[in-house]
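It would be a great kindness if you could assist me with a short task in structural biology. The full record is reproduced below for your convenience:
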Amino acid sequence: MSCSSCAFGETADRHFNAEKVAAEVRRYRQKGPGITTRKLCDGLASAGLTQGTVLDIGGGLGGLSVALLDAGMSGATVVDASAAYLAAASDEAARGGRSTSTQFVHGDFLVVARDLPRATLVTLDRVVCCYPSYEPLLEQALEHAEQALAMSYPRDRWFVRMGMKWENAMRRRKSNPFRTFVHPPAKMQQLVEAAGFRLISRTNTMMWSADVFTRN
């Protein structure tokens, strides 16, 4: 990575602050999970991947974990570098009656990964784009995935790249060091497949892809 893991954790914690997370909670309670969360849930349900445990990396509000627990998963671990996100995720788990089934870990996944158990399913919903280098993130995620990995990420299209370039420019003007990235989907797929997984579903929106992989 182009910056240390500790620096990334501090940057993410600052970017996803209480004010930003509160606004997202309001949208979530009004409209439910976002499009990529729904696409991942649909792909996992279609593949019959609704049993076992889930490790939700960069889980945010924990909406994906709650949905998977509702679908039949037995336990979830939500990891996020934002303390505000984790506090909100804890609240949402309580609202959904899932507090006893969910554990919360504060920190950059790459820093805390060694202390986390493996899970049946590992998820990364809109997380890969937050890291300047996707390789160490996916490598660690795959090491923790016993059966499947599901992830969503920005499509490599010119208008997506332009949109992220503009967002990063606005953050730079505000002295916000947080950045987002468009990584090459083909190379990410090659990395996952090299670890012994195969792509079983991919659903695209105009801006996002949602992939589900299972271990060969």
